[in-house]
Amino acid sequence: xxxxxxxxxxxxxxxxxxxxxxxxxxxxxxxxxxxxxxxxxxxxxxxxxxxxxxxxxxxxxxxxxxxxxxxxxxxxxxxxxxxxxxxxxxxxxxxxxxxxxxxxxxxxxxxxxxxxxxxxxxxxxxxxxxxxxxxxxxxxxxxxxxxxxxxxxxxxxxxxxxxxxxxxxxxxxxxxxxxxxxxxxxxxxxxxxxxxxxxxxxxxxxxxxxxxxxxxxxxxxxxxxxxxxxxxxxxxxxxxxxxxxxxxxxxxxxxxxxxxxxxxxxxxxxxxxxxxxxxxxxxxxxxxxxxxxxxxxxxxxxxxxxxxxxxxxxxxxxxxxxxxxxxxxxxxxxxxxxxxxxxxxxxxxxxxxxxxxxxxxxxxxxxxxxxxxxxxxxxxxxxxxxxxxxxxxxxxxxxxxxxxxxxxxxx
Length: 411
Description:
One of its GO terms (biological process) is Mo-molybdopterin cofactor biosynthetic process. It catalyses: adenylyl-molybdopterin + molybdate = Mo-molybdopterin + AMP + H(+). The protein has 7 helices and 28 strands. By secondary structure, it is of the alpha/beta class. The strands form 8 sheets. It has a 6-stranded mixed sheet with strand order 7-4-6-5-9-8, with no helix packed on it. The chain has a 6-stranded mixed sheet with strand order 16-13-17-21-20-18, with helices on both faces. Strands 22-25-24-26-28 form a 5-stranded mixed barrel. The longest helix is centred in the C-terminal third of the chain and has 20 residues, at about 310-330. About 40% of the residues are buried.
């Protein structure tokens, strides 16, 4: 049986792979903002106006000149003349002069002359046209000034930002109804193996349903790509060759599951090398699970060969497929791997020089979060389905000890 040419540490494997990836981000397309959740900005978004467009109150209360309240307290209130009420959705027809105030509601436009708002609960009515101020306020108290959030011409969103709820709301607040976003990367997914059958079929002895095409499709789409499944490829190089060529002609990247280990029938690496330069860059990564991983680039398009075992495939996809998607989308600075600190409940052994990943369940007891390892075999998908996250044992360690605080990468 042939051996892997070289087992690279994951970080080094990614560096070799990354250096051969295309530097250009995918082209842009224009979308309605209401359809752009989860998409990535293709260019900076510049504000066409100030936000807020006018100075407004952040509370229910009375618009005042702050200096008229100085020294006011419950024992020595200030008395101001009530001259009216600020209408909602319209500009007030009056201004505030010394010794005057006006009733204003949250979001109401601050009248000319006023520079602060006293909260309603810090006032009381003494007469129909007079208000007692029971607390002093400084200038700017309980007020949003025009342009305090965003000024006209300001870059509100740089290129490479994923649009989520706050960003969508901000764009509509500025009246921006369309935005240029990066086209979603099309990722071709090939599942290989004579023993693999479609999930709608009943397996016969020796057969297994296709898991990887569907779990990897979900991962790709979760991270901003479009998954294109090319079905199940039998263990024949000519079929893999034709299917891969077809997928590369239609997609921005291709993922192949199974066919990556060093055995006599595993010809994936050879076929990838036929598809264009530079071909296979890495064949074998010093990680568990997922050692028989292939990383290649064919004429500017990434091709990743994943192990066939479902747990291994998903763990390695998080290490290499997700970063490829982020590169194609031009994502900048976004932290995508959320992590929590937890206390390990048992000892975990590891092989020095190899990076290991263990699925864990998170259990809270009182104020402490515990990480309970799930001991598994890499072909059991529900091992990962039951897990809350992964604990990494670095290559420099021979394991982690019970009671040790660890980082858990949330799934």
